Protein 1
Amino acid sequence: MKREQLLEAVRGQITKHRYEHTLGVVETAIRLAEKYGADKEKAETAAILHDYCKFWPEDKMRNIIENTPHIPKDLLEYDTELWHAHVGAEVVRRDLGIEDEEILDAIRYHTSGRENMTLLEKVVCLADYIEPGRQFPGVDELRTAAEEDLDRALAKGLGGTITFLVNREKRIYPLTVLARNSLVKPKM
Ligand code: DGI
Ligand code: FE
Ligand code: FE
Ligand code: FE
């Protein structure tokens, strides 16, 4: 599918506000891909589709998690906000025919992250944090870091999410901790 068709497909799945967020992630992911040497076309496709299942009902997502062998079942024990990423990767493969595993992984891990993320995964995950429409405490610091050091910026972003979750007495999905640790070099 072409860019315009993919945009149309995702527009039918999400709110107007979320669609605008998606356009911001697309623009930012392309820019970061260019800056850090990731595949721009793959970054664009992954960014367009990254929140495809964001507004799917919980029971529909739960069903897909339970019935798709390789989706980690422990997601069901963590915040439902994590689900749309792993489910989204399966759904865009099934419904839109996206077969590129690098693109699917970038969608799959855009929320949780994972240990040793690929360049493309980092670009999409960071673009999701810093797209122009995003507003949260510390976002400008993240935007500055993103211009200097991809790993450091993403570690900061994930660190902020971990702090946010801890402050709300929520659980942290282990992949998020592994992602951050693998982005922060050990000090000897
Ligand atoms: O879908 P978006 O709102 O664009 O952003 P996202 O897919 O990065 O979702 C982020 C939300 O997920 C954020 O509000 C925090 C929540 N969340 C809940 N548990 C976890 C988590 N995020 C991470 N990275 N790890 C968790 O364990
Ligand atoms: Fe998301
Ligand atoms: Fe994110
Ligand atoms: Fe997003």
Protein 2
Amino acid sequence: MKILVATQKPFASVAVEGIREIMEKAGFDLALLEKYAEKSELLDAVKDVNAIIIRSDKIDAEIMDAAPELKIIVRAGAGFDNVDLQAATQHGIVVMNTPGQNSNAVAELVFGLLLFTVRNRYNGKSGTELMGKKLGLLAFGNVPQNVARVAKGFGMDICAYDAYCPQEVFVQQGVQQMTSAEELFRMCDVVSLHIPSTPETKNSINAKLISSMKSNAILVNTARQDVINESELIRTLQERPDLRYVSDLQLAADEEAREKLGDRYFATPKKMGAQTAEANINAGLAAANQIVAFFKDGETRFQVNK
Ligand code: 3PG
């Protein structure tokens, strides 16, 4: 069995070593393709592999066509919008993710972004505190549940909206359940986005929602860039100079946003929510173990293209 780790944004080397150990113990060979710049490199690397571990790397039908032996793709992370699931199913390829494995890292970055923002980018001017502020989580999966846990330490008042999450989860976590995204945006000082990128959520964070935000509110995005309606975000923030947008994902209109919004827009230069040694180890090793279990026992628990 040949397993390829294909990561444009590499894992910490300690995670790669862990993946190698798991594969060697299982009797599998490991190939590495890191920091590749061209799709042609990936097309070449997949030609004889049986499994691939990826991060946000795009896997489309062309890659699958070039990989006749490919049986399984594991996205070491949560969101799998970078894999063409329909094409995978047509090719008879199992796609999995590793839910929850990198969520603490992303949750911690939410607070990194928030503190940087409420303390005015550490420019010396008087800022504000998080304690007592109302935090709204849009979606209530693994990442936002970790955000809620940390937010309790900051003394924030936490609520969330997630149409797909059972009521008991909100109760267990001691988080107020909102009835709609509209209510969440209207009521909170900070709104943190955790929705996946799907046809339903693309462009869904629009002028209607953003303009309804409380005065001086902050919108945080560590989810996906395409859930934002960019032109409406920029226009609304121009109309509402009290609002701020901070993100782990640069807008496609990054330059325009910087020019028009100045310090009220911040985006990390590279998506780095899950970029910690711990998250890389958790997600990378989980991916490796899932591949071994798939080939040895037919285990498909985390399959996302059923
Ligand atoms: C995820 O979906 O798991 C996160 O967005 C992290 O993505 P990354 O592995 O590309 O950093």
